[in-house]
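Dear colleagues,

As part of the handover before I leave the project, I'm documenting each prediction I ran so the next person doesn't have to rerun anything. This entry is a single chain, and its sequence is reproduced below.
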Amino acid sequence: YDVPTYLGRRRFLDEAADRTVVPGVATGLAVTGVGGDVLFVEATSMPGEAGGLTVTGQLGDVMKESAQIALSYVRSRAGDLGLDTCRFEGQRFHVHFPAGAVPKDGPSAGITMTTALVSLLEGVPVRDTVAMTGEVTLQGRVLPIGGVKQKVLAAHRAGLREVILPARNEPDIDDVPETVRE
């Protein structure tokens, strides 16, 4: 069958499935001036200064600090997370936020950065149906964030079926339309 002839050219791509097929990529959620948006976090490592970190994308200071917190948490809890601590020796890490022309700042990508790093170190891709948002602390707590409704709606528009939110944001789910909550 010639689907494009009947329906026209494809308008939406399953970007999350394309991007998260490799370990080290996680799908996050953000609030922009025009509502919510899906963002991707990519992590990689290479030989270099042990524990070194490079963070790229058009990021503010809060995002850069969140990346350092994510790496520090993962390194400090490597044993608890089932990670081989040898994976950190002589390695420099790089966390990148594609779409560099779009400014990004705020702490709510912390859990996404942490997940991307753990995915990289375990060699296991993150499920392509999941997006997440939340500020992470050095102790591994996930703190509440703002813009839940906008972020969940963005995930829904992108075809994502599961959204991981901080537990303390549970009351904010009431603001999301029931059809989207399902």
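The helical segments are 3-7, 15-19, 61-76, 110-122, 148-157, 178-181. The longest strand covers residues 35-47.

All the best with the project,
I.
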